[in-house]
Write the structure tokens for this entry.
Amino acid sequence: MPNPHDVILNASPWVKRFSPFIPQGGVVLDLACGSGRHSELFASIGYQVLAVDQDVSAIELLKNPFITSKRLNLEEANWPLVGSEFSGIVVTNYLYRPHLDQLPKMLQEGGVLIYETFALGNGDFGKPSNPNFLLNPGELLAFASRHQLKVLAYEDIYVDQPKAAMVQRLCAVKGEPKQRIPLQFQG
Ligand SMILES: C[S@@+](CC[C@H](N)C(=O)[O-])C[C@H]1O[C@@H](n2cnc3c(N)ncnc32)[C@H](O)[C@@H]1O
């Protein structure tokens, strides 16, 4: 069984930074969860997590009682999570535009979306380089505005950790934030 501490060590600093903004008491959706680094992070700080992916074999190895995993094809014509509600949604390194607009519908009032994925220009550094998997300039900001999400933070930048990449990242809330949390300085 993988060591949960090692799994959490690989969590994105952006997701870690904004994790306290997700209201406690509900369920966090880890969309396209992969190995479950963010599911494990949220489970470690007291959240119930629904982890979905087309391949849940890695997350099932974690055997964490706070994490429910579900094998889903997130790219079929009908959205497989219709009617579900979450206090937080986390998406990293995954983009499927045809269903992007489903995410705000699944957020409860006061719920928080944390999104981080590759942006245009990433092809200069490696994969993904297919524009279908890369955000256009300002795309997450425009998405938040289209859905009346309040943007708490947004970046569209070059990063050199864990590897050189162009990324866009967003933290946004549906309605008003349930709590006021000062951001920690990330030195
Ligand atoms: C680059 S990985 C990111 C994993 C995780 N979010 C992270 O950042 O560690 C992309 C994930 O998307 C999942 N995925 C790709 N296509 C999918 C689909 N059609 N339905 C469900 N999951 C899919 C893959 O199985 C993989 O786990």
About this structure: The helical segments are 4-9, 13-18, 37-44, 57-62, 102-105, 139-146. The two ends are 32 Å apart (CA to CA). The chain has a mean pLDDT of 94.
